[in-house]
Amino acid sequence: MLELHDAPLAPLTTFRLGGPAARLITATTDAEVIAAVREADDSGTPLLLIGGGSNLVIGDKGFAGTALRIATRGFALDGTKLELAAGEVWTDAVARTVEAGLAGIECLAGIPGSAGATPIQNVGAYGQEVSSTITEVIAYDRRTRETVTVANAECAFSYRHSRFKADPERFVVLRVRFDLENASGLSAPIKYAETARALGVEPGDRVPLEKARETVLELRSGKGMVLDPEDHDTWSAGSFFTNPILTHEEFAVFHARVEERLGDGVLPPAYPAGDGHTKTSAAWLIDKSGFTKGYGTGPARISTKHTLALTNRGEATTEDLLALAREVVAGVHAAFGITLVNEPVTVGVSL
């Protein structure tokens, strides 16, 4: 276990923002992770868990406690059963499953971060979510001080949410287990319309696994959503806001605001979200509120490739980023009456 004091945290995040931690521990085994968590809990020390750092916004003052970087490794494949250590690089794991001819997470290629974060956020993109393939999550329960196995049905998965996200102080993810599909080298059925168009197929069709992965990577790259140290559009947390989910009544009010602002006949994006709810597009709301690609004049701006990504152009502070985020939230609410919710976890700061 590596221990540092007054350690910079910005290099451990994709935003490259945030002040130092009073103490930074890097754990490379499950036992080291558990020992560090127990030590912090026993001493009453604030604890910050860091995986790939792709979903973190850390305040400029840093973190006055112990930051625990989970750097465990482990990729175990048995037939269609996959077990990943929490510290495994997610996009590398996806590539290895495609090489093994297994379908189910190929459209989640290029997503930065670690495997352990995927069940917390119920990571999803291009028609796939990890909740459809996760069977179990192995976690350390800080309340009972035991290692527990949480079955899929007990994870309370929903859109970008889970039991782990709902109770962030309780569980520390150690390992994630998946059940993938052997479809003779073909992908899972393509669900996302944009992906189907790019592949030249119909939704529901299957394509060669590697073709699906490559196409998703191309789509993500075109939006600045694949990490590239030379491209400031990727100095972000990907999608900064979640897509709003509205009741049918709320959507009707929203639709009326759209017609009032943009004219009759303008239809906002609408996707069924189950149980009397409709999901709309945060990116569409941001764009139609006047925050177009590249918006901003300071060191934090909207990506030049995608309106849903807020970016550090190289010299930004966390406060610069939050000022931009607050401006976008206020502008969208003024235009359409919808309050956007940030997707990244904030540490020491809030919108």
TrEMBL record:
Cellular compartment(s): Cytoplasm
Pathway annotation: Cell wall biogenesis; peptidoglycan biosynthesis
Name of protein: UDP-N-acetylenolpyruvoylglucosamine reductase
Matching NCBIfam families: murB, PRK13903.1
Record-linked InterPro entries: FAD-bd_PCMH, FAD-bd_PCMH-like_sf, FAD-bd_PCMH_sub1, FAD-bd_PCMH_sub2, MurB, MurB_C, MurB_C_sf, Oxid_FAD_bind_N
Family, similarity comment: Belongs to the MurB family.
GO biological process: cell division; cell wall organization; peptidoglycan biosynthetic process; regulation of cell shape
Superkingdom of source: Bacteria
Encoding gene (name): murB
GO cellular component: cytosol
